[in-house]
Design goal:
This is p-aminobenzoyl-glutamate transporter. With about 500 residues, this protein is mainly α. The chain is built from 22 helices and 2 strands.
Length: about 500
């Protein structure tokens, strides 16, 4: 295995990205500066007497000057409402109450270890990738748990531990957006998409399940693709490992196994009760025609998922004695919300920027003019969506936070694509596959340094270049396969979620 020198680590395109990306302000201040920019732009454009015709109502709208008396009154009156009424805030915090509880009592860690350690030798690679992808239920904790565990499992069966580490990091990072279950990522991004779509149609709601079919299929496809990359490209390049693998891992205990079984039983009972409620005659969670697309069931999917995670977490926690009294449950939930403090602060600034953008009518003005330009050059087909996805992938090299990047891009691109008759949930999908694929090669990913530290336990000379070169095939192939999947879903009319396809 070629080991990069110190000189190589300090030069090259990736170092250029790292150097300039590190010079970007914190995402909070990016949105503060953008809000100020929108204020000044609204003054400039409104002073030119610019108007735009709303494509939905046909009403002629003037660009509203935020520097005016009316604009200042808007800022003072709506700052709090902009924050508390921002759709992603409540969605994500509610989801984290359940997912955070499951993570705090140890259910996520046990499920991840059980998935990898019990896999047959011939299926270990697939199990690692699959577990890494599903690990995003534990949010960023999966970055710290899955790669080193995968490396130790590979070493224990005589395979190169760095191949295991690469597979674990690829599944966790490049596959971060996919899952069979609905996760906090779905709630977060759909909330931002809904806010952005309101610039065109305030009745449209992008729900957390609007990308569910596509993302569920992606788990299986990417597990297979990731395993093939590991076994056909990465492992042969690494060669035979001759070092020592002194690391050990704690096996799943009998009590944890019992807790996992009880969690599965509790979860199955809960799902059965929900299914019974859905399929009851004249069910209150079905629509007036008896269907579920749309329905109160889909619009209320977040609390349904919340109570699912609370149910399985409590069953596991009581069994392993992490929950011994009722007050333990809100205490663990409180700890989970503490970890969201940085996100809450970021959302305050992002909410102001997006709402200023919409109130000033700059968002719809930019969307209408961009859509008209693309129409004039006949760029309204699927290639423009592919191009958008490529742009999102490149931007992710400079803005690692998916929520921050989507909060930046959604107000511009969702209205524009809606005017071209693309569904906002499909635009969101094009962003998600790009953002996820490049997670593992951007030096701005804070977990890259952690994975590099794990890597050096097996190769003392490994550097950032070693890690990036090892992860690049996963990033490029994952993105390419996802683009092909997106095009197939679009051309065949397959729904990417309940009742959701390419066009509105």
């Amino acid at each position: 295995m070629a080991t990069p020198t110190e000189h190589q680590d300090k030069k090259g395109f990736l170092n250029f990205i790292e150097k300039w990306g590190n010079r970007l302000p914190d995402p909070f201040f990016i949105f503060v500066y953008l809000a100020v920019f929108v204020v000044l732009l609204s003054w400039l454009v409104s002073s030119l007497g610019t108007t735009v015709v709303h494509p939905g109502t046909g009403e002629e709208l003037a660009i509203q000057n935020i520097v005016s008396g009316e604009g200042i009154r808007y800022i003072l009156a709506e700052t709090i409402n902009n924050f508390t009424g921002f759709a992603p805030l409540g969605l994500v915090l509610v989801m984290m109450l359940g997912i955070g509880l499951a993570e705090r009592v140890g259910l996520m860690e046990t499920a991840i270890k059980k998935s990898i350690l019990n896999a047959p030798k011939s299926l270990i690679t697939y199990a690692v990738i699959f577990t890494g992808i599903m690990g995003n239920l534990a949010s960023d904790a999966a970055f710290i748990l899955v790669p080193p565990l995968a490396a130790m499992v590979f070493a224990s069966v005589g395979r190169h531990p760095l191949a295991g580490l690469a597979a674990g990091f690829a599944g966790t990072g490049a596959g971060f957006t996919a899952n069979i279950l609905v996760t906090g990522t779905d709630a977060l991004l759909s909330g931002i998409s809904t806010e952005a779509a309101r610039a065109i149609d305030d009745t449209i709601v992008v729900t957390p399940v609007d990308n569910w079919y596509f993302m569920s299929a992606s788990v299986i496809v990417m597990a297979i693709v990731g395993a093939i990359i590991t076994e056909k490209l990465i492992e042969p390049r690494l060669g035979k490992y001759t070092g020592r693998a002194d690391n050990t891992f704690e096996p799943v205990t009998k009590q944890e196994n019992k807790g996992l079984l009880n969690a599965v039983i509790a979860g199955a009972i809960y799902v059965g009760l929900i299914a019974l409620l859905v399929f009851l005659p004249d069910s209150p969670v079905r629509n007036e025609d008896g269907g579920i697309i749309p329905s109160p069931f889909l619009s209320g999917i977040v609390p349904i998922i919340l109570f699912f995670f609370i149910t399985v977490a409590v069953a596991y926690g009581i069994t392993v004695k992490k929950i011994t009294e009722s007050k333990d449950v809100p205490a663990y939930m409180g700890d989970a919300i503490k970890d969201m403090s940085g996100y809450i602060v970021l959302i305050f600034a992002a909410a102001q920027f997006i709402n200023y953008f919409n109130w000033s009518n700059l968002g719809i003005w930019l969307a209408v003019n961009s859509a008209e330009f693309l129409t004039s050059i006949n760029m309204t087909g699927l290639p423009v969506m592919v191009g958008f996805s490529v742009l999102a992938a490149l931007l992710n090299l400079l803005i690692f936070s998916g929520s921050a990047q989507w909060a930046l891009m959604a107000p511009i691109f969702i209205p524009m694509f809606m005017l071209l008759d693309y569904h906002p949930a499909f635009v969101q999908l094009a962003f998600r596959i790009a953002d996820s694929s490049t997670n593992i090669i951007t030096p701005l990913n804070p977990y890259i340094l952690i994975v590099l530290a794990f890597m050096r336990e097996y190769d003392k000379k490994a550097g950032l270049g070693t890690l990036i070169s090892m992860m690049l095939p996963y990033s490029l192939i994952f993105f390419g396969v996802w683009l092909v999947m997106m095009v197939i879903f679009a051309l065949t009319g397959l729904p990417i979620g309940p009742g959701i396809s390419l066009r509105m």
